[in-house]
Amino acid sequence: MFSVIQKILFNAALFLAILLSNALIIINTDSFYEFEFNKNNTSLKTGINHNDLFIVVDNIQDFFNEKSNEKIQMTTYINGIEKNLFNSKEIRHMIDVKNLILNIKFFNYLLWTTVIVILLIKISLSKDKILNTFRVIAKSYFIYSVSILISALILLALSFRWIFYFFHIISFNNNLWILDPRTDYLIKIFEEVFFMDAAILIGILTLSYSIIIFLSLNSISKIYIKD
Question: Model pTM?
Fold first, then answer.
């Protein structure tokens, strides 16, 4: 059996690893941006046509995934006139965001390493069959993750603005993230509702994976025992 500390550490590490992995996936999922831009009438609000919005997204994704900061210094057509899209404050904030993402990626590698190490230790010390061990672990994680995710999704739906505010306070050591929606295109393109939908989708994906992991291992275990 898992010790209490080992169980808590494993469940927390796996939960965060899946959650952060989903967040990183969403950042690079074009279909999510397309859905949000259509839903929020982003092209109409910004004066940037649909195709140019996706050029902006591609540049931002490249910026996040490359060492160079060149891609964030871009121009685009706004109401038919070519302009610099982001001002110096927005660019500096995006560099902060990029550094945050890099830290998240590194932390995520550590989390997955922790999960694998604990699993290997559990398997090596367990007297049960490996499949049954996985089933017990999956059940424990399922209860843990579902409890947290349901509470988190309810909280997000009720008070996302405050959560979003405190996320920025904790994540950044400056006020560059405080932008003006009247003049700053970063916040015009990526409105608060964009991030709320992203957070809810990440939560739903993480919840789905928890259910899939539990049901799959539980079903395989039952078939194995019957055989």
Answer: 0.88
